Batch of 2 targets.
Target 1
Amino acid sequence: MKKPLVGALFTFLLLGAGIAPATAAADQGTAATGTVEKGITAQAVNFAGTVALSNCSGSVVRTPNSLSSDPALVLSNGHCLETGFPDPGEVVFNKSSTRSFTLLNAAGTGVGTLRASKIAYGTMTDTDISVYQLTRTYAQIESTYGIKALELDTAHPVQGTAITVASGYWKRTYSCNVDGFVYRLKEGDWTWKDSVRYTSACQTIGGTSGSPVIDNSTGKVIAVNNTGNEDGEQCTVNNPCEVDESGVVTVRQGINYAQETYGIVPCIGAGSQFDLSRTGCTLPKP
């Protein structure tokens, strides 16, 4: 996992990622502009709608059918939950939470604090996501801060797409392309299905966990950043391995990954409520 930054882990994570705290701080506020791999020019992607958690990154998100009067949702990783890493097969569902999030504007400046009412959904099985329901609606957030939620794409990502990973924790962006998809991505005790693999330009670090992966051409969220192979080990924590349909294992040191988010959309009904029995919802159930 692109590990949460907690207590004594902080220095280890930074050094393990090959970047010192001073360097990371100096990079805050950069924008995703210019040319990325394969000759595709990235559109400017800013930080509006992203959030900083205490240990990770995230974003305020909505589905195409969300109403302005619906409670807003925040997307991050399952391994960023304040309750700790969910066990394989575990699903956190409608669990009370008062977690706070710092909302960022386009420039990456914190403009206010949002608070959760519950963990609407969280798991590290098949995927690595957490979705918090907030105490404020989309309309209230936009009225107060002038910031709109990012929209979740309803379609499977496409290989070669120019993307930006926008970290609210670091106020830093990473631009690259979707390199391909991984049948099974295994890390420690956890296995994720149909993961996004980045091209090598996205060298995400600890604290970028939960960052939205944004399609530069549409501005929509297509995935959530979650892990990378740091040391070249095979299938260990912080060193995920790729497993294909035949069981062949591939290790790609220095390559990072994300979990697709289009599958979240069918599971969200009226009033931002998760309903795992809805048609098309394939998220793991409690």
Target 2
Amino acid sequence: MYIQELKRANCNELQKISVETFYDTFADQNTEKNMQDYLAIGYKLEKLTQELENKNSFFYFVRDNEDEIMGYLKLNVNDAQSEDDFENALEIERIYIRKAFQKQGLGKILYNIALNKATQLGKDCIWLGVWEFNPNAQAFYQHLGFEFVGSHTFKMGDDSQTDLIMIKNI
């Protein structure tokens, strides 16, 4: 297993893994139309290319020894963060693991990359949003020392959903 920091050339792979993992994670709790509407906008190549080129966003793949992508991580700092409520902070925007590789400790590995990046950049805290109906992710982050501090709205197609904001001081 190894970690790869992504560049623009990885955009097609990023789109494929993003669509697959988001769909697998949330399709059962959302309408097909809302899923397809969100995926068409949230993970279009132009948008992902802009995100990859943003100097304040960082993407990483975790790959197995056969070079298969097992999961990925997206981090944001400064003006790339999805909320501007946190000063001197790093946002974990996405930790997604493909179904075949879940429950193998990859989430913790990706979290440690985030922690190392936050420390390297001199950040005071790490924060993230987690869907209110995703108790497994909430428990994972609580186990890592994150605490609930608020919420924000996440648009899934025409459905307004609530993400719980969690933060960890470092």
